[in-house]
Amino acid sequence: MSAASPDKQRFCMTRGNARELAVHLIYGRNFTGEEPEQVVSTRLDKEYYPQLGSENDIYLDRPSSSQLRYIDTVVAGVVNREEGLNAQIQKFSIGWDVSRISRLTRSIMQLAIYEILFVKDVPTGVAISEAVRLSKKYDSDETGSFVNGILGSFARSLDNQTPQEVPVQEPSEEASAEEPAAEEL
Q1: pLDDT tens digits, residue range 104-133?
Q2: Same domain, 58 and 114
Q3: CA-based angle 133:128:13, to the nearest 5?
Q4: Distance CA 27, CA 116 (A)
Q5: DSSP letter, residue 126
Q6: Are 88 and 118 in contact (CB under 8 A)?
Q7: With a threshold of 0.70, does the pTM exceed it?
């Protein structure tokens, strides 16, 4: 664990922190258009990463190798399935066009839906709770309620179907081969 500055408590990277870091990377990619591998390698570079600690406590400690695998998997998964994830958000955000939802809030919901469908060791309730927490942290309590409503409706819709029946765009075969399986986490 890296030493924190005297005015900050010691920080330990957890799965929740890794999730938050993944949201940062997914959100940032909205502006750069970089490939997921490039986003992860650039932002988590050993030389660059420590500089970010002064901006946000999430960057005070580097992710472990298992957390890096999780981050790689979910960032690539969200990027490769973005269209299908947005379709699910649109389906359950009644009265809202997905383009009107902030990029950050959309990134948080994309990650949560991806986790619910493809990351086997993340329970649905945890994915939703973490998405609500991040929405409240970076936006508002109202946004947290909005996210909870959309993700809750999405989760309830899964009761009648298997994840394979949920229409989420599959990545190309090339991207699929590069993306680690969620079970490897």
Answers
A1: 999 999 999 999 999 999 999 999 999 999
A2: no
A3: 55
A4: 19
A5: H
A6: no
A7: yes
